[in-house]
Amino acid sequence: MSENQPSIGDMLTASVPMVATLNLEYVETSAERAVLRLPDQPAYHNHVGGPHAGAMFTLAESASGAIVLAAFAGELGRAVPLAVRAEIAYKKLAMGPVTATAELGRPAAEVVKELDAGERPEFPVNITINREDGAVTGEMTIVWTLRPNS
């Protein structure tokens, strides 16, 4: 983003208050990959002292939103990105800070081609949640759509 345009992190934080509530940190946001970090915060711990499942879901969903905004920034004037459905699997106990890494499950050009054809494309975003030691604590897939403006 240029000096005059807000960053993807700034846009998400301004438009999705939960992002600010959880103090999510934007490590990387590009059209190829988005990485967000949830700091270790006792206010968002679960009953075993790690990040609450809802906080990890929000972290992963926010990472997916960041890559969608980055990958489809040029289409936002004609379509609205919306999450359609999500599935999350909690793999290992998460303790301390956790990081979510999101990647598109289909080439962006393929999705735009469907939008150009008048369709409402759907595409997956795959997210991995890791502890600081690198262990995978969760995996999530969110299916997004670009809903054409009427």
TrEMBL record:
It comes from the Bacteria. Gene3D superfamilies: Hotdog Thioesterase (3.10.129.10). InterPro entries: DUF4442 (IPR027961), HotDog_dom_sf (IPR029069). Pfam families: DUF4442. This is DUF4442 domain-containing protein.
